[in-house]
Model the fold of this input.
Amino acid sequence: MINKKPQERRKRDDRQADVFSIDEWKPKTEVGKLVKNKEITNIDEIIDAGLKIYEPEIVDALVPELESDLLLLGQSKGKFGGGQRRAFKQTQKKTREGNVIKFSTCAVVGNGNGYVGIGFGNSKETLPAREKSVRNAKLNLIKIVRGSGSWESDTNQPHSIPFTVIGKCGSVEVKLMPAPKGTGLKAQSEIVKILKMAGIQDVWSKARGKTSSRLNLIKATFEALKKTLSTHTLLEQEATIGLHEGRASQSKEEQVEKDEE
Done:
């Protein structure tokens, strides 16, 4: 009879290793030391000051509810080139020793409440590539502005975006437009993942160019979301469109409970 207890113990240890502990963290940067000493308690203090995040533990400490997901960047081999989409993009380089295989991944992180980031990673194996992409996504975390900018909407809750934004990368151009409450996310599947992580519930979208290039499509969407924070608005318009930066006053769980009531 095979004893499975060592395997179960190993799996349990792996899950415990993924849990972030601020007491065991030894920061190397000045910002990291301020976060551990609780002199910085809000991620907005870092983002608004334009400081660069060099340690993913900073994001883990200040945004503990952060979630991550892999975007479908590659494609498996299939008959007549019709393979299914997958998270790992495989490339080969021919050398004197033979073919050198590398795997590339793209991860998106977000708390579903105003913060989102994307990152890319590559390695000779799939697991290190995934870990690199998640780490880089945390380092690229941004704050977005949400609102209710649709003329068809009669609410000022931050369920959509306050105005139309356009992001561009290469030949791909992604246009995000405000939508009334209940519309949902009318966009390509990978764009939907990014918008959900950012906490956007309703939006119209339009993409043009070589949209089959997933890498450029993802980058263009991220650039469009960045413009929600850099675009200036009039003070008298902020109350009308429900302009809100970063976290909403209610958490994601509180909002779900309110909708159920």
User: Anything to note?
Assistant: Residues 144-248 form a domain with the Ribosomal Protein S5; domain 2 fold (CATH 3.30.230.10). The two ends are 52 Å apart (CA to CA).
